[in-house]
Design brief:
This protein has 175 residues and is mostly helical. It has a single domain, classed as Orthogonal Bundle (Lysozyme), CATH 1.10.530.10. Helices cover 58% and strands 0% of the residues. The chain is built from nine helices and no strands. The radius of gyration is 24 Å and the shape is globular.
Length: 175
């Protein structure tokens, strides 16, 4: 009888270890990544919040790209880039579209490349920065944000990366 009690107690001690390592236990404790969480408690969308921050930043400074926040968010998500990257580059390159050359608020191609509208420019730059354009994939695919900014312009302007990162922070805080 005593031997059975000991074996029973050993079995009880193993239960937490066995259940903690089971596939079902792992699923119970998973929290989805923030980019997969779409709603806040009040029902508003994270996408809407980010788009509002971008548009608010542009509006407060009377920048022509006001109203393009949703487009920038959609293209950033589609190309798996930071939601603040496109507006920050546009701020750095053209003061949010104020000095855009041919609907090119991003200074893409040293401003020699013209776009028919801002939507096309946003789509094109997001595609490239996401590493999804076969012609520029070597510069942007599987690169960190810092590496992407280095290839974008830091090799020409040494302070470029730090300035764009600062704009990204301002969009998030002030928008």
């Amino acid at each position: 009888m005593k031997k059975q009690k000991i074996q029973f107690m050993r079995g009880l001690a193993l239960i937490p270890f066995l259940t903690a390592s089971s596939p079902f236990a792992l699923l119970q404790n998973q929290i989805p990544p923030i980019h997969q969480v779409e709603r806040f408690i009040d029902g508003s969308s994270i996408r809407d919040d980010h788009a509002s921050k971008i548009d608010a930043y542009f509006a407060e400074r009377n920048m022509p790209l006001e109203g393009y926040g949703s487009k920038m968010i959609a293209e950033a998500e589609k190309n798996d880039i930071d939601w603040r990257l496109l507006p920050a580059i546009a701020i750095k390159e053209s003061s949010g579209g104020r000095f855009a050359c041919g609907y090119n608020p991003f200074g893409w191609g040293s401003c020699k490349i013209k776009f028919s509208d801002y939507d096309t420019a946003i789509e094109t730059i997001a595609l490239n920065l996401g590493g999804n354009n076969p012609h520029t994939t070597q510069y942007y695919k599987d690169k960190t944000l810092i590496e992407k900014l280095h290839y974008y312009n830091n090799s020409v302007v040494p302070t470029y990366t730090a300035e764009v990162l600062e704009f990204m922070d301002l969009i998030e805080r002030e928008g």
